[in-house]
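User: Continuing from earlier, I have the next pair ready.

Assistant: Great, send them over.

User: Here they are, in order.

Assistant: Folding the first of the pair now:
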Amino acid sequence: MNSIRGEGPIMYVEKKDTSNDVVLRHVVREDLPIFFRQQMDPDANWMAAFTRRDPADESAFNEHWAKILNDPAIIIMTILYQARVAGYVLSFVMFGEREVGYWLGRDYWGKGIATRALVEFLTHLKERPLFAHTAKDNKASIRVLQKCGFSISGEGKGFARARGEEIEEYIFTLT
């Protein structure tokens, strides 16, 4: 496996945590087809709301990921659960503010994986404040952010491509 992104603002020391079987590592090329399949799930897109225009467009997916992986301001790690690719966690700058986000394949929902992955990610990402946005009806994501110390700091609206309409969102902050 060739590491796509082995450098960046955080130094990550990979370790095997047998207490929860959630491990973060740098993204490798072999992860991308898995991410593509995961992001094609219509229920996952509905929950995430703010998604790609056409999840089935593999060419657009590959272009998007090439940009992500070559942008030094984006920090992204693959989430492994029991040695399988479960999704990813990332941080990026939007409108001058550092944000966090995550994606899990449906097979990994409801197991506390996103929370454990974000907790681990945050130990390496020292910049504060951090922000996150989530649809107001995405209760699972709201719980993950609150468990990780984020609190609601505002509300907004945005066009959710996955839903084809403007929706309300919460803005979360970690100080």
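And the other member of the pair:
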Amino acid sequence: MVAKISVKSNVRRFTKKLPLYLREQVPFATSVALNETAKKAAKAQRAQAQRIFDRPTPFLLNGIYSPRGRGSFRGKRSTKRDLKAVLIPGLKGRNRFDDASARINEVIRIQTQGGTRLPKKRALVVPTSSARLNRYGNLTRNRVQTLLNRSDVFSAGRGQGLPPGIYKRQRNGGLRMLIAYEPSASYDREYPYYRIARGVVRSQFDKEFRKAFKKAVRTAKIK
């Protein structure tokens, strides 16, 4: 998903009153302001994700905003030749996703826009209350295969007269479902990703532009 936020300000009107050597600093100052505003937006989005999501992993949160990462926000940084900053959760490098970062993008998208999530393969793997989860409430990476390697655990489909899933045989002869195979999952809109970004842009861009322009003026060379 991509957060494209239009920034409208009085920058152009402001530049008409400036001498040429200062007008030449405006694209640089604008670019810096866009990147700093995008950083603040991503930071606010991460803070809200921590509040709204149930035990979000550091990996997911860093896919929105990484305090230690280069540039902090995930997406495309503005330059003075291309005055556009774009927030793209999960993005790695330039226009690149791997499987893990693509999952971050999908999680943010479905939590923001709502809708139905379909499996990439045959079914979604959904843990039951009987499954062992990590501290973030998720199955560990190899948990399904580890379970299926056990002699007292098996995978069942509808052809076996059971709801599709992974079961454990009990000592008393009964069965306990550990993981359900679901054809889809529905989500409500819970995470105001775009609204957070718009609010930060409205409140912060002009401040960041003034700050960046003052710095540019100090280093400008009079021609």
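Worth noting for the second one:
The chain is about 40% helix and 15% strand. The beta strands are 75-76, 86-87, 115-117, 124-127, 153-156, 165-169, 175-182, 185-187.
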